[in-house]
Design goal:
9 helices; alpha+beta; 24% strand
Length: 236
């Protein structure tokens, strides 16, 4: 199918693809197709074959993992310009997590059989892929450290700073996280109970550090939140 010209602009938002020249981007756009998913529709499950790469054109994607006893953890929320499925794409093995659309979503899909030869034809893109995967590994390591070395209030503070990096919008009352987040979603991100998140959020609100209403969080006192997270230099 034909590909809209604005797809290239969206793909360039991603660190992996932003440095492709016009000819390389045009070549890449001949390899894929647009796929549409309804709200809450599964894109792939953990354990599925890693047979393609997706780029988010419109909508949001929830990346989740689960244990054998049914416990689920929300790992990330992806937006327009983000990519998913790159780990399984590279090694050809099963998916390491599940992905589902949070609303009506459009993705750009490139099959592994087409993308691997594209990488081989463009060695600089291989280097970019290594950089992106190293960033992902650092992110995973930070999450592991959070779970092992930090208590729930500190982990929540660090997660709020991460979300502020991604979705923060300055306003008269502070830094507003524009991504709506229920307490259940925050608990799933941290791998703890909703009650523990509720208790930690209540403490932050009483201290005047955040305001939480209708699923949106506003950081009212950024220095205190950074102190709680142990990241004094972040977002300075």
């Amino acid at each position: 199918m034909s590909v809209p010209t604005d797809v290239a602009a969206i793909l360039r938002r991603n660190r992996l693809l932003e440095e492709l020249d016009a000819a390389q981007m045009a070549e890449l756009l001949t390899l894929g197709c647009i796929c549409r998913f309804a709200s809450q529709q599964t894109i792939f499950d953990k354990g599925d074959p890693g047979d393609c790469l997706y780029a988010v054109l419109k909508g949001q994607i929830a990346i989740r993992t689960s244990s054998t006893d049914g416990k689920t953890m929300l790992l990330n929320i992806l937006n327009s310009g983000d990519i998913l499925g790159e780990i399984g794409l590279l090694d050809g093995r099963e998916r390491t997590a599940s992905a589902a659309a949070l609303g009506p979503t459009e993705l750009y899909r490139i099959d592994r059989a087409d993308f691997i030869p594209f990488l081989e034809r463009h060695p600089r893109l291989c280097t970019r892929m290594m950089i992106v995967l190293c960033e992902r590994l650092r992110w995973v390591s930070e999450n592991i450290e959070d779970a092992v070395f930090h208590d729930v209030p500190s982990r929540l503070a660090r997660k709020l700073l991460y979300l502020a990096d991604a979705y923060g919008q300055s306003g008269p009352s502070g830094l507003r996280i524009t991504q709506p987040l229920s307490q259940e979603a925050l608990a799933s991100m941290l791998g703890v109970t909703r009650e523990m998140v509720n208790k930690s959020l209540s403490a932050l609100r009483k201290s005047g550090i955040v305001t939480y209403a209708k699923g949106f969080i506003v950081i009212n006192n950024l220095p205190l939140l950074k102190d709680m997270a142990g990241e004094a230099d972040r977002l300075s």
